[in-house]
């Protein structure tokens, strides 16, 4: 998707950015997903689908961060 975006759409097609964000989401790469969606929101601020998906990605990132095991004092 990155190559397609770079070669054919000059990095400005929000639909391809949404596809790229979905691949990051499925690979559980939450920060890359959020960054891609925020870039798409910058290009199309009136697209509420992008805003909703960014919120879901941020929620998944925060829940995965909070579920990491805590280290004990012995480690």
Automatic annotation (TrEMBL):
Q: Which UniProt keywords apply?
A: Repeat, TPR repeat
Its GO CC terms?
Answer: Cdc73/Paf1 complex
Q: Which domain of life is it from?
A: Eukaryota
Q: Which residues form a coiled coil?
A: none
GO biological process terms on file: regulation of DNA-templated transcription; transcription elongation by RNA polymerase II
The entry lists its GO molecular-function terms as: RNA polymerase II complex binding
Entry's InterPro entries?
A: Ctr9, TPR-like_helical_dom_sf
Q: Quick check: keyword Protease in the entry? A: no
What protein does this entry describe? Uncharacterized protein
Source organism per entry reads Nymphaea colorata (pocket water lily)
């Amino acid at each position: 998707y990155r190559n397609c975006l770079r070669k054919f759409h000059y990095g400005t097609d929000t639909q391809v950015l949404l596809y790229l964000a979905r691949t990051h989401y499925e690979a559980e790469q939450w920060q890359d997903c959020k960054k891609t969606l925020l870039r798409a929101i910058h290009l199309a601020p009136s697209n509420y689908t992008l805003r909703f998906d960014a919120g879901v990605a941020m929620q998944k990132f925060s829940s995965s961060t909070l579920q990491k095991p805590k280290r004990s004092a012995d480690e």
